[in-house]
């Protein structure tokens, strides 16, 4: 009978080559030599604990968040990051809910940081506004292009509404090309998210200031009625078309271009105050009527302020729609 080799202090076998983490192989026993079955069976290798095999909560394992207690799993929180993916895989992109966060001290927005800056904002605005500028220039150069008030019909108003939809759509596409497409993000980066509770007091405050400035300006300047208002007949069809254009289309598309895209790009470069001033000035000029530049610029600054304060573009859309609704009612009732 063959004696098994005795283990040494370092875990190896006496006379063998084994080490502490690799056991020595059993000796060869010739067939029929009468060795015991235990000596003929290979000694199994000891199981070494690995990091992947360690259960959660034990030493050596990465700590895992508790879904019942961690705010990351309960909803978005300041600075929250998505859970890490498998080993070797790229980190998962934050979802729209996880990207939404409250602003840290010094940050101007309750939104994820915009990746586009003033060069992209200016380029996208120039490309988006080019068709409207060319049409306005062609209308100004044509002596008989402007139709008189008696020639305005429901058909001409409908064509105007359709052309405005096309122009607004192109402006939104240009804004998307220079912002969301380059950033690879969703509409939440423009601010299409739930507003904060400041929604309920920022809109009345901003509208009060805007109407106060507009009233004082009208007493001094006596501006003419905007050309777009004279393009709709005072009939049921004309009023409906004007409401669709002024209360629905204009607030949505203009807020995308001037606040969600332009203001955010400028503010990302120069801070929210300068971004609000410059985008408000461009907003006033874009309406192509200098005698109402000051009220429109004040409106643009107020819209930028409520956007910054609530972190939601829906607040701007609502305020813009209310402002235009008052204008439409005044036009329809005064005659």
Structural description of this entry:
The structure is a single chain. With 335 residues, the protein is an all-alpha fold. The chain has a domain at 118-138 and 150-334. The chain is 53% helix and 0% strand. The protein contains 11 helices and no strands. Helix 7 (199-221) packs across helix 11, helix 8 (236-270) packs antiparallel against helix 9 (272-286) and helix 9 packs antiparallel against helix 10 (293-310). It is globular, with a radius of gyration of 35 Å.
SSE inventory with pairings:
Layout (H helix, E strand, L loop, with lengths): L36 H4 L30 H4 L21 H4 L18 H24 L12 H24 L2 H4 L15 H23 L14 H35 L1 H15 L6 H18 L2 H22 L1
Helix pairs in contact: 4-5, 4-8, 5-8, 7-10, 7-11, 8-9, 8-11, 9-10, 10-11
Q: Return the structural class.
A: mainly alpha
Residue-averaged pLDDT: 75
- Report the helical percentage: 40-55%
Helix-strand string: HHHHHHHHHHH
Largest sheet: none
The stretches of 5 or more residues where confidence is low (pLDDT under 50) are 1-21, 28-39, 51-62, 65-82, 94-106, 145-149
Report the total helices. Answer: 11
Strand content: under 5%
> Between the first and last Cα atoms, what is the distance in angstroms?
120 Å
Radius of gyration: 35 Å
**Overall morphology:** globular
Topology, number of strands? 0
